[in-house]
């Protein structure tokens, strides 16, 4: 496995640990942590900071009834939460977002395909598949975009991204990711606002393709 | 063997080579772990109800205070306490004192439950690294994690009120990622060296797992 060189920034991990990331971004961060021990450790450190806040933020007395209820419920049956393991190139959180099924690809043109995993007011998460050597049309972002490489690699103005690498892009970055030669590049991407494509036609297609 | 810890000690001990050496030297049975860790291990390994009751008495008021500070009513806060403490009981097998102090583990569960229950969506979680071993506890590693947690708590206490407020809001989940980014120069930076020490240690440990 190649060394991961592009990590989640600290503020993103803190927000993930605190549970304040919108769902689409949380899926990408959870997937990256599944592949990246450095970021798993950094996230654990943030949870330790959260634990320190929990210890010091101040106590409120709980009712005796609550205590009795909790101690009385220890033997109550509970439904175990489903666990999602890695399947092929897809980390557990992606498998969960796909509800355990293989991706259902939709062609976007020029050999590029997508599979939407989550879409709502908070933004969207999708898988993108880009043929070797192909460029994703020039686009900039209204908000934040996170891209995690799951297979192959891509390069853009800011560097080269391989499996496990996480790219963070915002309004200031107008970039043209190009898939490296070799395997099809498959990425998990989350955006909190529609992408803005620089050329006219793709922007007309945006509402149709929900990019 | 409990060592008085200075910053220099911590920096020295966070180096991988020093750590490996130290972990070998320490006895496998910790002589002085915090009561919370001991209770949690008793719950994990022996399903000890008295230990769970002690944990409840220790953490339920903190969890309620935390939830109310985050804007929950007293009733909602007690619902959260119930959810979190029952999850602590049910998922005790996942508790690994070599990787996380009790407070961090409970914080993790509290954030999960709060999102699952109040946002009505399942929080995406990383793949499970596997259950910790219940037979060969590395006492040195447990103590190192506890000392780190304590140092973090002290660092938090030393912040000025504004900085502390910011850190609290960040970990209560009240700040967006962008807000945390723009605030980084202030409070996160202050405890960053603490986080980094813990992080290096954990990173080293996780490397050994590969």
Plain-language structure description:
Chain A is α+β, with helices and mostly antiparallel strands and 211 residues long. Chain A has a single domain, classed as Jelly Rolls. Chain A has six helices and eleven strands. Chain A has helices at residues 10-17, 23-35, 37-56, 64-72, 92-97, 200-209; strands spanning 106-109, 112-120, 123-130, 139-141, 145-151, 154-156, 159-161, 166-169, 178-179, 185-191, 195-197. In chain A, strand 1 (106-109) and strand 2 (112-120) form a beta hairpin. Chain A is elongated, with a radius of gyration of 20 Å. Chain A starts with 9 loop residues before the first helix and ends with a helix. The relative contact order of chain A is 0.17. The model of chain A is unreliable at 195-201 (pLDDT under 50). Chain B is mainly α. Chain B folds into two domains: 28-124 and 134-158, RNA polymerase sigma factor, region 2, helix turn helix motif (Rna Polymerase Sigma Factor, Chain: A); 161-203, no CATH class. Chain B has ten helices and no strands. In chain B, helix 4 (49-69) runs antiparallel to helix 5 (74-90) and helix 7 (139-158) packs antiparallel against helix 10. The longest helix of chain B has 23 residues, at 187-209. Chain B starts with 6 loop residues before the first helix and ends with a helix.
């Amino acid at each position: 496995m190649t060394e991961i060189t592009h990590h989640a920034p600290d503020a993103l991990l803190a927000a993930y640990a605190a549970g304040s990331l919108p769902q689409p971004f949380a899926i990408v961060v959870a997937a990256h942590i599944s592949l990246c021990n450095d970021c798993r450790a950094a996230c654990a450190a943030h949870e330790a900071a959260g634990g320190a806040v929990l210890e010091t933020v101040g106590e409120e007395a709980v009712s005796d009834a609550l205590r009795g209820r909790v101690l009385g419920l220890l033997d109550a049956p509970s439904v175990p939460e489903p666990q999602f393991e890695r399947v092929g190139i897809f980390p557990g959180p992606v498998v969960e977002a796909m509800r355990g099924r293989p991706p259902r690809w939709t062609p976007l043109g020029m050999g590029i395909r997508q599979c939407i995993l989550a879409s709502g007011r908070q933004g969207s998460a999708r898988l993108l598949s880009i043929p070797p050597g192909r460029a994703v049309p020039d686009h900039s972002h209204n908000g934040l975009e996170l891209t995690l490489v799951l297979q192959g690699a891509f390069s853009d103005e800011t560097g080269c991204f391989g499996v496990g690498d996480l790219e963070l892009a915002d309004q200031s970055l107008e970039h043209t990711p190009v898939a490296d030669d070799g395997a099809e590049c498959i990425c998990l991407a989350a955006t909190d606002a529609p992408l803005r494509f620089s050329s006219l036609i793709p922007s007309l297609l945006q509402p149709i393709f929900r990019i | 063997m409990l060592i008085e810890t200075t910053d220099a000690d911590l920096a020295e001990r966070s180096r991988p080579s020093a750590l490996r050496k130290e972990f070998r030297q320490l006895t496998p049975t910790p002589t002085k772990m915090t009561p919370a860790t001991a209770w949690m291990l008793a719950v994990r390994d022996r399903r000890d109800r008295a230990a769970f009751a002690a944990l409840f008495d220790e953490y339920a008021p903190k969890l309620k205070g935390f939830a109310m500070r985050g804007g929950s009513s007293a009733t909602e806060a007690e619902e959260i306490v119930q959810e979190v403490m029952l999850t602590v009981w049910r998922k005790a097998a996942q508790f690994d004192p070599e990787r996380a102090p009790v407070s961090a583990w409970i914080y993790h569960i509290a954030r999960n439950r709060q999102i699952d229950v109040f946002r009505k969506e399942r929080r995406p979680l990383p793949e499970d690294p596997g259950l910790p071993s219940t037979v060969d506890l590395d006492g040195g590693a447990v103590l190192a994690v506890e000392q780190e947690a304590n140092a973090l708590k002290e660092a938090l206490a030393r912040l000025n009120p504004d900085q502390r407020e910011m850190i609290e809001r960040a970990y209560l989940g009240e700040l967006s990622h962008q807000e945390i980014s723009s605030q980084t120069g202030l409070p996160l930076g202050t405890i960053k060296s603490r986080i980094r020490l813990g992080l290096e240690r954990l990173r080293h440990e996780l490397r050994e797992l590969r």
